[in-house]
Write a structure and sequence with these properties.
By secondary structure, the protein is mostly helical. The protein has 2 domains: 473 residues, Up-down Bundle (Growth Hormone, Chain: A); 57 residues, no CATH class. The chain is 67% helix and 3% strand. The chain has 25 helices and 5 strands. The protein has a 3-stranded antiparallel sheet, with no helix packed on it. A two-stranded antiparallel ribbon has the order 1-5. The longest helix is centred in the first third of the chain and has 30 residues. It is elongated and about 95 Å long. The two termini are 46 Å apart. One of its GO terms (cellular component) is membrane. Its main location: membrane. Keywords: Membrane, Transmembrane, Transmembrane helix. This is Major facilitator superfamily (MFS) profile domain-containing protein.
Length: 600
């Protein structure tokens, strides 16, 4: 009943407030009963783990915050990404097929050799086919020269590039399908290296694995430049791809684990500018050194520089603590604190920062660990799907840039120039809006740009428009690729973080590998490859909708149980606020830790 002197609107508000208070009390009572119903050991284990995570995250934030070590981490991450970017997207230049003409004189010299019957080709009428793959001789005085013959030598247009794999090994006409094989095998090696190096770094540590991977890649960049035969080139492509995957997988895991939570997305995006610099480096090298062998040698030299600098980062304290190496973790933290000119942490307290011994932390870190828990299994499959999609779109467009018309070298340089702005924008958007909304916008823009490109690919005189659409799609592909890497390294728990991200990178290489095969559809219908790439991007929007948000997490999952709980939140959270709320469910923070978390 409303009192005579009481405002009806005020009465309604008071009733709503009373109802909300009653609902809140009921919820708190239910939560208390649920907590009390848990076994004592379970509650103590959750409390220990939560306190461990809060203390460790606070310590890492204090020690690894902005300072000289952060600058060192950013510079070395930047350098380590140059060689992978140069070699991967450099295949658009290495395998470029310029315009060519049948070398009539060389072909006729072979026809009139002593192994044939004697005859004079000058006494014949000669016609070269439109595709420059064969020539026809008629009205010859020597009967053995009559007929159609395949061209055995060609002269190539050197306007854009003087020497490519195609021109060196004559991969045209009947041998044209072989020109796709080096890129395909490169991504086969990438596929192998992604999972193997991820597992490798989880076993022996990030520092040593990164050193081996950088040496591996730089060595085979030189090998690709000097191999004398095409079969040896194919073998070297597989090994170079494995090295590239190792550098990307391990360096990303190390950067995430050495970065404070508030700087993680910004540093990962900025560190990946090295990939853009790699593409720009290979484009400028092609501009001034139009021989692909010199371009690969330049990329290999930069890779050696990364191998020299990588050991200065030290080992990841997270990995050391996850593998019960407390003293080494203490020394690593003291070293970082010294570089950042901060007070050294108390090494004796690190024993208390080790996660409690549970079945989850005692298990091996094989690939099967990603599938033994429902939450991790779902998280892994969704992560694989988005890696597969973005790699197919990114590499499919990047490696097909030469088929759009115009200068392939200039197009490669423009692709490199649009990537840094996309990464700067990505760091801001991911921090402001979270990971899921950013990925949704990215895949929508990628699909729209690539489908638009497919609609005008057969229109004459629109080479500039096609290139603009491709570069616009590259802008969002680059942003999405880095966001996917960031998401994978945030979502998976520490014992399998590198393995989870590395296995996702493996599926990315499957997508990249298939993109080279899908590109062959252009011989049947020119718009087909771009139509496929655009459709895959649009379909990935459903995958993004099902992902849990990680942008508002207070800390990274440390145990397999925490990763499984996060995976069960499929399709929840949107933006940092809801992500933080979801994270409360994952962590199950006790009351005494709530104040610490709010202070953070």
């Amino acid at each position: 009943m409303v009192q005579p002197n009481e405002d009806p609107a005020e009465s309604t508000v008071n009733k709503k407030l009373l109802l909300e208070e009653e609902a809140k009390k009921t919820e708190e009572t239910g939560s208390s009963q649920d907590a009390n119903s848990l076994p004592k050991d379970s509650k103590e284990e959750d409390s220990d783990t939560s306190n461990h995570k809060l203390q460790l995250e606070d310590l890492l934030d204090k020690v690894c915050g902005p300072g000289r070590f952060t600058c060192l981490l950013l510079v070395i991450g930047f350098i380590n990404n140059i060689c992978p970017g140069a070699v991967s997207l450099g295949h658009a230049l290495f395998l470029y097929t310029p315009k060519f003409l049948c070398d009539v004189n060389a072909t006729l010299a072979g026809l009139a050799s002593p192994s044939n019957l004697h005859g004079n080709s000058n006494d014949c009428d000669l016609t070269v086919s439109e595709d420059q793959c064969s020539l026809t001789l008629s009205n010859c005085t020597a009967s053995n020269l009559l007929g159609q013959f395949a061209c055995t030598a060609w002269s190539f247009d050197s306007t854009h590039l003087a020497v490519t794999v195609v021109t060196r090994f004559m991969l045209v006409c009947d041998r044209a399908p072989l020109s796709r094989l080096p890129a395909t095998l490169y991504f086969v090696g990438f596929l192998i290296g992604s999972t193997s190096y991820g597992l490798f770094s989880d076993k022996i540590g990030r520092r040593l694995a990164l050193l081996i991977a950088t040496l591996h890649l730089s060595l085979f960049a030189f090998v690709l430049a000097v191999v004398p035969t095409f079969p040896l080139l194919l073998a070297a492509e597989v090994l170079a791809g494995a090295g590239t995957a190792g550098v990307i997988t391990v360096s990303c895991a190390l950067l995430v684990e050495l970065t404070p939570r508030r700087l993680r997305s910004q540093l990962l995006f900025n560190g990946s500018h090295g990939w853009c610099m790699g593409i720009l480096t290979i484009g400028l090298a092609a501009w001034f050194m139009p021989d692909y062998r010199h371009q690969l040698a330049a990329a290999g030299c930069i890779g050696l520089l990364g191998a020299i600098l990588s050991p200065f980062l030290g080992e990841s304290p997270r990995w050391l603590l996850a593998t019960d190496r407390h003293r080494q973790a203490g020394r690593a933290l003291i070293r970082i604190a010294g570089l950042n000119r901060r007070s050294a942490p108390n090494v004796e307290l690190l024993q208390g920062l080790t996660p409690p011994k549970t079945a989850a932390t005692a298990e091996s870190t094989g690939i099967s660990q990603l599938f033994r828990r429902p939450g991790l299994r779902r998280l892994t499959l969704l992560n694989w799907a988005q890696f597969f999609s973005i790699a197919m779109c990114y590499y499919g467009v990047g490696l097909s840039i030469g088929s759009l018309g115009g200068s392939v070298v200039l197009s490669c340089i423009l692709m490199a120039l649009v990537e840094p702005p996309s990464r700067f924008l990505g760091g801001f958007l991911c921090t402001r809006f979270g990971r899921r909304p950013v990925l949704g916008v990215c895949f929508a823009c990628i699909g729209a740009a690539i489908i638009a490109c497919s609609l005008i690919i057969q229109q004459p005189g629109l080479a500039a428009v096609r290139t603009a659409c491709a570069i616009f799609g590259t802008f969002w592909s680059c942003l999405a690729f880095t966001t996917v890497w960031l998401y994978a390294n945030e979502a998976f728990p520490t014992p399998v973080r590198a393995l989870g991200a590395g296995s996702g990178s493996t599926l990315a290489r499957v997508g990249a590998l298939l993109s080279t095969l899908v590109a062959m559809l252009d011989s049947y219908w020119p718009p087909a490859p771009f139509a496929v790439f655009g459709s895959v991007a649009m379909a990935t929007l459903l995958v993004v909708y099902l992902l849990p948000e990680t942008g508002g997490m207070v800390d990274l999952p440390a145990t397999m149980d925490e990763g499984d709980r996060l995976g069960r939140l499929i399709g929840t959270g949107s933006g940092s606020g809801k992500a933080a709320k979801s994270r409360e469910v994952v962590m199950k923070l006790p009351d005494d830790a709530q104040g610490v978390r709010e202070a953070v």
